[in-house]
Amino acid sequence: MTGMSSDYYSRTERGHSPKPSEQMVTALARGLRLSLDDRDYLFQVVGYGTAPRVRRTDHVNVGLMRVVDRLTDTPAIVLNSLGETLFQTQPGLALLGDQRTHQGLARSVIYRWFTNDAERKLYPVEEHPKHSRVLASQLREVLTREGPRSRAADIVDALQGCSTEFTEVWAEHVVGWRYSEQKILLHPELGELTVYCQSLLDPEQIQTLLVFTATPGTESHDKLQLLSVIGTQKLSPSKSASV
């Protein structure tokens, strides 16, 4: 869960290892399911100040993590308000790919959607215009709430400088667009899946847990079950053909 070996953790706890990085402390706080106050204290104990370290929304809400802990066989993902991935279950990794590896503005799915063609391969081409407007609407909502000196504003400025599509959609002043509960996803090995995406907001409504399910007895349901078993392993032709 933390990416930290038990030996390294033991040495760190006894003070026999070098000072862990902020990223490692963040991972440890997440693995221990610490509250934000406890997380701040951990950073202070290690020797990092709490003000400049990371944004508040980078720490997964403890209540959401308790729910995620029970979803070991279900595709699920936790996002903040800018669409930055904070956590994925193993089936979530298998369904959506690892969305936690991006850096900088590319951490935001909104930014990636308008700048990286690979991001769009998960959805049918005919649905791309809708996705563009939903994401632009979400970004405008965050910008309105957080103001012109926010990270949302940085994303807007960057996209207006590099994406003609974003500039055109942004000029439409779209607001209030939302995804429907039913989605069609294009998995690189299993093909098309029709799934239902239920969302759960944290109390401050700045983080969202998305859970993907399918109707029992359908081909899409069988495919999700297969993903929960094989995880991120590559499918052999025989397995793929049998689904």
TrEMBL record:
Residues making up the signal peptide according to the UniProt record: none
Pfam families documented for this protein: HTH_31, MLTR_LBD
Region (Disordered) residue spans: 1-22
Annotated ranges, domain MmyB-like transcription regulator ligand binding: 61-227
Protein name, as recorded: Transcriptional regulator with XRE-family HTH domain
Organism from which the protein derives: Nesterenkonia lutea
Taxonomic placement: Bacteria, Bacillati, Actinomycetota, Actinomycetes, Micrococcales
